[in-house]
Design goal:
The structure is a homopentamer.
Chain A (H helix, E strand, L loop, with lengths): L1 E10 L2 E2 L7 E7 L11 E5 L8 E6 L16 E6 L2 E4 L6
InterPro entries (chains A, B, C, D, E): EutN_CcmL, EutN_CcmL_sf
Main location (chains A, B, C, D, E): other
Keywords (chains A, B, C, D, E): Bacterial microcompartment, Carboxysome
Chain lengths: 93, 93, 93, 93, 93
């Protein structure tokens, strides 16, 4: 999974039928220290993430393994809102 | 998902049998502010996207999760035509 | 999907059993104007592509969605031989 | 699969329901000689990996092929804790 | 698929249960002329590849389409040992 911060929203009225009602957020991928790391992308959110939240995102077709009856054509899903990140900097201590 | 703009079309008469009738568009991937971000690729379109439209594209095998009976060998699908993008630039406001 | 040109062949006598009889071609990925764009890779061809053909390639596990009984361990499939590419360079005209 | 070292943990109370109870570790991808190679990412661990361990990680939707009843929306899984790596530097000897 | 050369082995005693007995090789990805192209990765081998062999590797979740009863959490599989590579350098001749 990738860490990132929610930086915005995308609206699309005309879309694949099955996707009606889903929320699409713009996520800026980040390093553990929250410096930017790569190009922003769009992720589906079902857990109530909002602007500025640090999130955990599953990318690729695994994103479509949501607990629905069928697999949707989505390739990024916010799976968690991060409470804390603990990075240790010394090996073996 | 990735944002991008439709910049052209590709025609292929000889193709895998199951793909007959699909429309193949060339998409230039872009940042939220519509500056280019990477190499153009080809996506299937079923929702009527056209030249110049800003679109939302699912890449990878999730693209084949279209509402058909079987999964097709495609790796990019235009899932929405973007109405508006809202990027906020200050955290916590 | 990715555009590219067929630049060669690969032969492998010893291989996973299910892959016997498949044709493996080397594809140079390209931009719409046919300038090179990245590292050559190997794709399965079932539609008769040959040296110098400009092709459309599906990459990733969607390539295994061929019309067979079972999914094979392949990650690139030539899905079309390109007749023409139409890239428009001015927006909204 | 990718080699890497566990460098930390991520906690997320609010998450997709099915993911409750999973452990999320931060992995720094590495070359065989353990020099860093790319951006840290988050992987699910079920085999007891800990800080400083050199691990083998499956990325992409294959990570969801865990021995469960259903496929989860995760895209990285620690599949092994590495005991030793043997890289030979001369061909044909 | 990707071409590469087997440059070593990885051993991991503690691993996901289903992976017991699989052989994990280190592969250096290469161009058709065997110059290096990217970061080494780990692939499962079931066809007897060894040190120095030039191999064809399927990456991503398609690697788990092995002829088994269930799909395993692996993302790279050696599918062939290359006998010969034929790259032509002039178009249309």
């Amino acid at each position: 999974m990738q860490m990132g911060t929610v930086i915005g929203n995308v609206w699309a009225t005309r879309k694949e039928d099955e996707l009606t009602g889903l929320k699409f957020l713009i996520v800026q991928p980040e390093m553990p220290d929250r410096t930017s790391a790569g190009t922003p992308f769009i992720a589906v959110d079902r857990i109530g993430a909002g602007f500025g939240d640090q999130v955990l995102v599953t990318r690729g077709s695994a994103a479509s393994n949501m607990s629905n009856d069928k697999q949707l054509p989505i390739d990024a899903l916010i799976i968690g809102i991060i409470d804390s990140v603990d990075v240790e900097t010394k090996r073996g201590e």
